[in-house]
Structure of ABC uptake transporter, ATP-binding protein:
Amino acid sequence: MAKLEARNIGKQFMAVQGSNTKLITAVKGINLSIEDGQFVCLVGPSGCGKTTFLNILAGLDKPTEGEVILDGHPVNETGPDRVMVFQENALFPWLKVVDNVEFGLKMAGIEKSKRHERAMHYLEMMQLTKFADAYTYQLSGGMKQRVAIARALAIDPEVLLMDEPFAALDSQTRDLLLVELQLIWARTKKTIAFITHNILESVVLGDKVVVFTKRPGTVKKEITVNYRRPRLPEDENLQPYYRQVIDAMKGEIISDKDDNDNNSDGVT
């Protein structure tokens, strides 16, 4: 049985454009199965509804039609079994690094000594123990994202949902984190759904790459990446998988004008 399933997911909403309103279909008829411990990357053109779909998986938004199933049970709201890591790290600058990682555990009522022990465990995994007492504004962008990932892992979710967490980083930092995230995934065996606009990033990280159509977004193709880990972006043996994703994306890349229209509608 799949760990996480999307069954015929569709989402519509009303968008205001000047003095007019219109009904926007963000995603339509999405069927996707994610196995326990699988790393799945979602790619597609800007405005195709990938983030909308991820928010539905997280329980942050409700579908207009269809349902999400986690471990055989419908998902109707947010919960600690699914945790989101955003492109913006959403850390609290007035808290120290370790307090940021402990925050979710504190909200869950975990006693101080246990949450501190768990926080330090994941900071060690992210190679951040010596920065535990630093404030987040003292960290680089890559280090902040490590803290955000440590905070998500500390809650011990069933599923980790990641919305372009490396998009704002420089290429060198991103390449390092691509390797580190694979090593962390291998240790934790978490089920991960990861949105990216970077096709090479998708084949480096994913067991499976799911290509979305342009809006209304739906699944165009699923590509299995059957290659050893950890994978490096410069590995030429990944090129056949890269070409498969590129070929699937053909015809789905939208013009700059359409991209601006999509952004004004609020679909991502």
